[in-house]
Amino acid sequence: MHLPVSPDESPVNDLSLRDAAALLTGGAFWSTAQVGTVPSIVLADGPHGVRLQKQGTDHLGLHHSEPATCFPLAVAVGSSWNPQVAEQIGAALARECRELGVSVLLGPGVNIKRSALGGRNFEYYSEDPLLTGVLASAHVKALQAGGVGASLKHFAANDQETDRMIISSDVDERTLREIHLAPFERVVTEAQPATVMCSYNKINGVYSSENRWLLTDVLRGQWGFGGVVVSDWGAVHNRVRSLEAGLDLAMPGPGDLSTGAVVAAVDSGLLDDTLVRRSASVVAGLVQKYAAASTAAQNVTAQNVTAQTVAAEEATAQNGTPQEYADYVAEHHQLARDLATECAVLLKNDNHALPLTPNSTILVTGELAVSPRFQGGGSSYVNATQIDVPLHAIEEHAAASNCTVLFERGVDSSGDDSSQLRAAAVAAAKDVDVAVVFAGTLEAEESEGYDRTHLDLSTDHVALIKDVSSVARRTVVVLSNGGVVTLEAWHDDVDAILEGFLLGQGSGQALADLLFGIANPSGRLAETIPLRLEDTPSYLNFPGEQGHVRYAEGVMVGYRHYETVQAPVRYPFGHGLSYTTFDTTDLHVTETGPDSVIAQVTVTNTGSVTGKHVVQLYVSTQAGPVRRAARTLGAFTKVELAPGQSKVVHLELDRRAFAYWDIDRAAWVVAEGSYAIQLCANSSTVLSETSVNLAGDGLPAALSLQSNVGEWLAHPVAGAALTPLLTALISQAAAREDDSAQVAAAVNVSDLPDMVRLMPMIQLVGVSGGAIDPDKLLQLTTGVEAS
Ligand code: BGC
Predict the structure, then answer these.
(1) Rounded mean pLDDT of the chain?
(2) I want to staple 106 with a disulfide (CB 3.0 to 4.6 A). Which of 151, 171, 262, 643 is the partner?
(3) Closest by alpha carbon to 410, among 433, 390, 439, 382?
(4) Span from the CA of 59 to the centroid of ligand 1 (angstroms)
(5) 338 an active-site residue?
């Protein structure tokens, strides 16, 4: 077992047992305990903005928090398919944390979008573990390079809000490893997050906070995690059991009771004192490493508050605009806008309805055009420093391109009847060149704490889109929603759909830039848009019943399901349009080892404006003894090209792109066989493909006496030894029956009837009358396994 901090060398050895135990619970709601010379540090919610609460603490997004930039949410960053977007957000967040005095920012969340109904899907990146892991790694690396610790959450299989604090996620190990743990594994091994936050739920009946297999065997032992395991707020039920399982820091504090329980357990011999010291060491190590963010802020704030107040007063006196925040505010607002333009996905654009053209008359309708929806509810709720209003940004661009803008609210979500507002919008839509309808989900429809029950837009939003599009010459729909919505009620009635998801505080400007072509859409769907809720892979098993949710879809999550069963969807994973066009050609693949390849692709911008394209490579195989998805994302990259420009890009498909989790070996295995490398426009459109034959790990199947006779015969060593024994047995049996024809036919073991071939070896051992010695047989497999 890998212990990241040796108890013998730890500075906490000088602490009394009670003091060491006191380090293991928060000192307050948002801070660690100050013990002896170990100072307290501040933790605050992220992931897309700093939610620092100085008073009225809560973890539900209810009370006020300090102003901070609300960057595009993970749902949007997922659609960027660009790790540089995640990286820039991470770096900017670090700067805000340092300014505000936050040492650990709680995020990013890398749970997989198992169901489109998940109430926190806006806080997660994707239905795909690779995309999720790559983006989250970039976020964590940049945040930590800026001197602030990350908290990778929610570990693990915490993919729903219904009964989130008590539900048992019942999931097989292959599914866990390949889908739900995979992003955590990537981020832990690539980016070494300072902390990992264990989730509220149980996994196969055991609370994550008490799950030794999860927190110690897998996280520390197999992945080499050396940081602090922190509980989700209130996820600890039994402090002693959780400590034994590997949970270092129980939050929130203060935690005198829990400290007392730990001390009592050691005193009565129920808990090993070295476990307390080990955890105290890693907590002290975290504090030591990241205290500077808290301390620097205390100093800076003390000096700067006065300086900033004077500057704010001067600015107010000069131009009437209070300038209350630090310098980064304007810079980060601009960054939030710029990054948001990379995240929106142009789903549909018939007849070049977008970008909007100069000299046109535009109707903007929908209340989200003036009250933008740009973030979700709950613990991640950020008190944004500034909010761009889409209508205002559109009006600015319109003025510059000689367009006329009309506005009709169209919908009233306060509960009043919307029909008059809608009628006014329809009347206005008759005379304009294009109607731009802002629609989406409302704040109350999606939040931490509960799941959605359907995927539809509200009836008011649907009615507005349908009625306006029935009279307007052209209709463009702009969507703002955290979880995916179905488009079926109106999809065919409109010309263009720009899906913004939740783009953060710069959303209004970003959407306007995209509508006018000042920015070119380059987002791609990080999750499938289904035709119906009933088509989604977890439909029959979400959100579970009687305290259990069965992950019965197994590894077939998201596009893996739709592609494997060939079910139609509205828009596949990876889909997204641009104002330019791209060609991806000349796919070449070179093997770099028995289980890895490098692929090369030429990308050309064949249109007339600069744009970014996402090159997507998928792997398709049936190699190995397990059911594989029709294809899985193996590598991707985003490339920017001017019109006419070409670039050759190289993408590495590493071992993991080909491996499956083998439950017999309890290991990742690359099976020998043929693997198609598919260059795709999205998960369902293959543009070109090529195949490689990989030697893989060269391991024969792991055998037990439950393995069938055919599997034993295929084993290179055991099969060779077994063949003469089996031939003799068959000959003797046939001879006894004096059936010379059967003797002739059956002595060749390759012709064994299925009934024998598929029989477990243990049965054959039983009827062999001692001719087959099971122990000797098993010994024959060990040398080969080890090699
Ligand atoms: C959430 C976490 C959050 C914590 C602190 C919990 O309820 O699940 O994501 O970081 O509260 O606010």
Answers:
(1) 92
(2) 151
(3) 439
(4) 6
(5) no
